[in-house]
């Protein structure tokens, strides 16, 4: 029996648990390929073994629907058989397995949004029947949760996929028509969203944000991370807090953001400027890299694989765009915002852990 079987959740609490659990699954699935995929691809001419290594990190990514389901189930502290049943339901709901001439084929990661939806439905069913199937748990959960919720996912898949494809196509088309303007918009949106409970990783994967749009989102996240880390430093927080922000823990600053929403103004400025650099300097990415900024060097490593200059020039560009420019820009905008515009103050960034 799960530890939280008797706990009641509001709709918002339930949804946030689903999102947070799905994000953990997505991160586990995409990180190996996001970091090593482009590197292995570029090194295949050096040694053919890198092609096999590249296949391995891609296979891990193909497990995303199952990992999403397990991540969501873990958020609700379900037991092992419940957790595995939710993972199976999410796998069915993702639609990433199709039969072609009688042969089952895995076609990508499937629809992540539908996998998240099915995971939530599966958890709800698991909690609903928990007290009623105690003696038949090993039969009930695979049958009702895995198969039942998975079947529901097959029904919702066409509609959810159409919606996510439409959003992705709109973003891609707008970015192609107005690359600088849309890059600014995407960078600002992602920079603001990272300061909320919403998962930017899940969003990027859901709408298949790639190319310049992915690069813009990535640079927007770099901007907000550097800005919040500098604010943490100015507020004289412990060094560990500031370092954790840089290493991917910028969401720890959510309480600060919601305590003073004016922080969004300088954040939008630095993110917008950084986002504009994506089309200018040809900073591109994948759906998997869009939501990571420079955490784990995912953004720079993926961007490098798309650059066409000489290796030295590419490295110089990446050093400037991922480190020198955002640091100088954020320090300037921060000090203007504090001393000139006076819309924020150092104390706004004091840790609220």
**Helix-strand pattern:** HHHHEEHHHHHHHHHHH
Show unreliable segments. Answer: none
Number of helices: 15
Number of strand elements: 2
How much of the residues is beta strand, in percent?
under 5%
**Mean pLDDT, nearest integer?**
91
Shape, principal axes of CA atoms:
globular
What's the helical proportion of residues? over 70%
State the separation between the terminal residues, measured CA to CA.
Answer: 32 Å
- Largest β-sheet summary: 2 strands, antiparallel
Helix and strand content put the structural class at mainly alpha
Domain count, please report it.
2
C-alpha-based Rg, rounded: 22 Å
What features would you describe in this structure?
The chain is an all-alpha fold and 353 residues long. The chain folds into 2 domains: 11-167, no CATH class; 178-349, no CATH class. The protein has helices at 11-43, 49-62, 64-75, 80-94, 112-129, 137-177, 179-193, 200-206, 211-234, 239-249, 254-259, 264-281, 287-290, 298-306, 311-340; strands at residues 97-100, 103-106. A hairpin with a 2-residue loop joins strand 1 (97-100) and strand 2.
